[in-house]
Recover the amino acids of this structure.
């Protein structure tokens, strides 16, 4: 501990709460209203706002002393007088505005009345002219549209009524009537349909037929009646010039008068320019010295005026007009523009007043705490602490006390002690029983890691946890001893020592929040275990941000962590975080404070307002300055919730209190007004249900909401049906579509207030027509042509497919035929090669024999050897047989060539085929039997004469018998049989030899093909014998075929015609 200002270590200061105390002053902490202003800098045509009116569409019409303004919350549209333009206002000095049943806007001016068509901006003027029965006076002071749609105009010379059929005005109350004066200030219709007329000489009540009911001469007298209001509760409120406010009880006719007195609870001024009543039945008056509210049940007036150095106060005390719009906010017309405020705010607003020494000492609020005596402690950034007890306020600072610093960062308390964290250390204020305080200061020398105390928390064991920018200390409140425990952070490996938040949950678990990206630390003092939670980009259930600003607990034991990126909800038994950020509807991601109300709703102060999160309903409501907040920006840890349900939030411009027990969220449902359409950059009045050309496809649509509470914070959504399947958020009050294709379109637009209330959906129907070459008739023609083309094409394709199919089939057959021919040629070529090889053997064998015999005979002659006749004859026989063999081979070649060249001729003669066959068989009998084969001839007819070439037929029979002999084993049998077939004859050569396979049977008659001995794989003959045989038979118009089975013999059959 240190001795502050060199006084003794512990100073006891006694502050006696009385008006005589020199240290202390008391004041009524007056609730403030935050006004927003609309001035000429925002686009208003002139500063003196005489009247205001909201039409049925939602526009605010503002009449000034220099022109009429049409306002939508974003921009102004001006209407003024132009002497060269008949379609302009009657005058620039606007006195009153009203709307008739058809939506026309009526404007009262100094020079007459104007009727405006708001859709076309066409203006018709009505002037004073006694000769044509028009207005009775050019100065029109008031316009009303009655319940039965009658337009009354009050002038300086009586009352006029509008006749729609003749489009003229007629005088109904003039000099001869019961008016006390023709100079009428105002008129009003009450709930019964009675017409009340206020003049410069008193008040008169007429029934709906304009029969006089009462003049109130005895109660109100000949006063200037400037404003009249029916509260619909049985009272008429009468505002006068210089004589205050009157209340008339319609039931008994009694009259009460309210005037300015020296009391703060009286009316601020006796000139009442306008009267309105809000939804909470609070009366609001516009006077020449500010505005005031009147709680007529308590008979208390509360004034609001322009305050020096407060730009959010009333813009000017000289007020001229009042308007309550559809959402319930109030517009105040003054000589300096318009002040706008929300009378239904749920937030009480308190701020400092530099000229008021008894008010708050500063606006930047850095700490809030309410002690056991219901005393509110309010810390400021540079002006110490304010101690508020009811209407009493005390300033605690370094100038009047021993508090260690005026720069406050956090305040909390325990029993009779209040702990104040400052920029220079910790101050402990202990309340004594005699209303005195003991202040004890702690700094680094006493055990603090740093003098910059940033967070305070009292745990369940009676310890004060002190978070600084360099670590943590713990104060034993009972023993007043501080222990620096920053070393535990080092043991955990935590380098971030800037401690911004500390909390102990209902289970005795401690949570510590590090401000400089150190994350969240969880410490279990029972098990000595700890855990550090940090953001993991790959884990969506990790903490959302490592900069922790606030920690608390909800009613269900969940840990609530405010970070620089939204709020995190941690269920201690899961270690998983649930996040809520701007994407989920929060007004801002930077969470400064979190308070929990009795319904377990979370209230979060941020950089851009306050968000209320309902965990059960999963809904978020946002509040901004338009709802009465001191500012959109709040300060870290500057919040407190008491046991009564009041929540306190401090910011940069004071602090707010919200009573969560009586929270009333506005259920006002705004509407969307579609006001401006641009087609290819050209304005159009309306495109709803309009047909556009194909090149009129660049569209911009502007709109606005009739919710003027927070126009620029409303969110607008749109959806182009058929194109968009979800709502699109637009950043401003316009939508642009470029190059829209021809189509029927329905555009839907809606708005959502910061409180989450959705407007009704506004729709626009429009059609972009296709060009003539793309219209439905052209498309029908195109479809017909396409279908016809497809039909012709398909027919053509079918024809082509059929022709291609036919050609393909022919080509396939041709290919198959060519393939067969190719294969045949290959086989033929192979057989030919084989044939010549065999032929060479066939020729060489007899030639070798002849050469050998020739050499033998020559040798015998040379050696004079004697050759016997018998031996010589033997040699001669051998030579003869081989010569015949050679001759036969050569003849076959010659005949084959002649047949191939079609030069082979038959020498046909009449021949007995039976005899020819028998003789041929007998000639071959010895040759066959020499091989050990039996040769048999048989016939079923003795004689059969046919016409044939005898030598060729004989040759064929010899070839067949030779072939049979070659492939018939020794002991085999060859049968030659002739059968009579009437006009044909059949010659069969059958053996019981090796037989022929089916494969070889198919090509046995092909040229150069050779019969193969399947057992020995030996080839027989030259390969032309059977070929020549077949060709000779073919030349005789006969046929030849073979019947055979492998290993079961063969039968060659020749069929010859008789002729």
């Amino acid at each position: 501990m240190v001795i502050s200002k060199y006084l003794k270590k512990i100073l006891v200061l006694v502050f006696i709460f009385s008006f005589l105390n020199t240290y202390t002053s008391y004041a009524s902490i007056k609730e403030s209203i935050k006004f927003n202003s609309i001035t000429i800098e925002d686009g208003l045509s002139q500063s003196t706002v005489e009247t205001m009116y909201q039409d049925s569409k939602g526009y605010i019409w503002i009449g000034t002393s220099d022109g009429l303004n049409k306002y939508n919350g974003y921009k102004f549209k001006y209407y003024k007088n132009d002497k060269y333009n008949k379609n302009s206002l009657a005058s620039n000095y606007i006195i009153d505005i009203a709307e008739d049943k058809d939506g026309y806007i009526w404007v009262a001016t100094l020079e007459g009345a104007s009727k405006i068509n708001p859709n076309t901006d066409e203006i018709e003027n009505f002037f004073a002219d006694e000769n044509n029965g028009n207005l009775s006076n050019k100065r029109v002071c008031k316009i009303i549209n009655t319940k039965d749609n009658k337009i009354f105009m009050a002038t300086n010379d009586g009352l006029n009524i509008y006749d729609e059929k003749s489009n003229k005005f007629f005088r109904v109350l003039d000099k001869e009537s019961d008016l006390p004066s023709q100079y009428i200030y105002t008129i009003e219709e009450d709930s019964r349909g009675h017409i009340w007329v206020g003049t410069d000489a008193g008040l008169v009540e007429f029934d709906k037929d304009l029969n006089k009911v009462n003049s109130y001469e005895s109660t109100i007298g000949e006063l200037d009646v400037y404003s009249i209001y029916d509260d619909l509760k049985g009272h008429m409120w009468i505002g006068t010039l210089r004589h205050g406010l009157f209340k008339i009880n319609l039931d008994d006719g009694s009259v009460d008068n309210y005037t300015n007195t020296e009391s703060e609870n009286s009316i601020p001024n006796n000139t009442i320019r306008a009267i309105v009543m809000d939804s909470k039945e609070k009366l609001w008056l516009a006077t020449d010295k500010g505005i005031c509210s009147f709680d007529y049940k308590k008979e208390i007036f509360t004034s609001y005026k322009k305050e020096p150095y407060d730009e959010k106060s009333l813009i000017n005390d000289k007020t001229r007009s009042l308007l309550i719009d559809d959402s319930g906010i109030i517009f105040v017309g003054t000589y300096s523009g318009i002040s706008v405020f929300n009378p239904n705010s749920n937030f009480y607003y308190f701020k400092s007043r530099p000229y008021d020494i008894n008010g708050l000492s500063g606006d930047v609020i850095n700490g809030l705490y309410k002690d056991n005596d219901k005393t509110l402690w309010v810390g400021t950034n540079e002006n110490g602490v304010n101690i508020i007890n009811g209407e009493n306020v005390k300033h605690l600072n370094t100038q009047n006390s021993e508090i260690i610093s005026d720069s406050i960062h956090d305040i909390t308390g325990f029993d009779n002690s209040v702990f104040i964290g400052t920029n220079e250390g910790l101050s402990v204020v202990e309340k004594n029983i005699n209303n005195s305080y003991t202040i004890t200061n702690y700094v680094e020398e006493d055990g603090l890691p740093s003098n910059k105390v940033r967070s305070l928390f009292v745990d369940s064991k009676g310890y004060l946890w002190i978070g600084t920018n360099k670590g943590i200390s713990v104060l034993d409140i009972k023993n007043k001893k501080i222990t620096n425990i920053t070393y535990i952070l080092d043991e955990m490996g935590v380098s971030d020592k800037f401690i911004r938040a500390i909390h102990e949950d209902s289970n005795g678990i401690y949570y510590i929040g590090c401000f400089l990206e150190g994350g969240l630390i969880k410490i279990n003092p029972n098990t000595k275990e700890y855990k550090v939670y940090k953001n993991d980009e790959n884990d969506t259930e990790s903490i959302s941000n490592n900069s922790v600003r606030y920690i608390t607990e909800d009613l269900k034991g969940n840990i609530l962590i405010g970070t620089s990126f939204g709020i995190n909800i941690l269920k201690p038994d899961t270690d998983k975080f649930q996040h809520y950020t701007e994407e989920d509807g929060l007004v801002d991601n930077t969470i400064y404070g979190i308070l929990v109300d009795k319904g377990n709703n979370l209230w979060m102060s941020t950089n851009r307002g306050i968000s209320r999160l309902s965990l059960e309903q999963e809904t978020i409501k946002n509040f901004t300055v338009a709802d009465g907040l001191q500012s959109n920006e709040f300060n870290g840890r500057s919040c407190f919730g008491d046991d009564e349900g009041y929540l306190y939030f401090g910011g940069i411009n004071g602090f707010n209190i919200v009573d969560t027990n009586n929270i009333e969220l506005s259920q006002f449902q705004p509407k969307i007004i579609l006001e401006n359409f641009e087609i290819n950059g050209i304005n159009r009045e309306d495109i709803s249900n309009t047909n556009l050309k194909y090149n009129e496809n660049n569209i911009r649509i502007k709109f606005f909401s009739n919710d003027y509470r927070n126009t620029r914070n409303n969110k607008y959504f749109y959806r182009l049906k058929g194109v968009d399947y979800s709502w699109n958020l637009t950043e401003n009050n316009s939508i642009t579509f470029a190059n829209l294709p021809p189509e029927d379109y329905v555009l839907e637009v809606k708005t959502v207030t910061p409180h989450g209330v959705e407007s009704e959906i506004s729709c626009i129907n429009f059609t972009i027509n296709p060009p003539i070459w793309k219209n439905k008739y052209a498309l029908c023609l195109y479809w017909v042509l396409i279908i016809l083309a497809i039909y012709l094409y398909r027919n053509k394709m079918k024809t082509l497919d059929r022709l291609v199919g036919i050609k393909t089939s022919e080509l396939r057959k041709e290919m198959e035929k060519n393939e067969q021919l190719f294969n045949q040629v290959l086989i033929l070529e192979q057989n030919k090669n084989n044939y010549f090889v065999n032929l060479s053997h066939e020729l060489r064998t007899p030639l070798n024999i002849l050469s050998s015999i020739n050499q033998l005979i020559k040798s015998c002659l040379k050696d004079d050897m004697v050759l016997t006749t018998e031996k010589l004859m033997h040699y001669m026989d051998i030579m003869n047989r081989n010569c015949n063999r050679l001759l036969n081979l050569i003849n076959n070649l010659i005949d084959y060539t002649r047949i191939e060249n079609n030069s082979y001729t038959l020498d046909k003669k009449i021949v007995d085929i039976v005899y020819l066959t028998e003789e041929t068989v007998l000639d071959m009998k010895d040759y066959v039997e020499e091989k050990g084969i039996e040769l048999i001839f048989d016939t079923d007819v003795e004689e059969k004469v046919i016409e044939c070439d005898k030598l060729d037929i004989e040759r064929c029979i010899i070839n067949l018998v030779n072939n049979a002999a070659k492939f018939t084993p020794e002991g085999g049998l060859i049968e030659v049989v002739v059968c009579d077939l009437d006009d044909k004859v059949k010659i069969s050569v059958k053996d019981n030899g090796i037989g022929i396979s089916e494969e070889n049977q198919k090509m046995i008659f092909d040229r150069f093909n050779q019969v193969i001995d399947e057992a020995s794989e030996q080839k027989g003959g030259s390969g032309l014998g059977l070929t020549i045989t077949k060709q000779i038979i073919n030349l005789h118009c006969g046929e030849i075929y073979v019947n055979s089975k492998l290993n079961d013999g063969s039968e060659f059959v020749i069929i010859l015609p008789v002729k």
About this structure: The first strand starts at residue 11 and ends at 14. Residues 1-28, 1013-1020 have pLDDT under 50 and may be disordered.
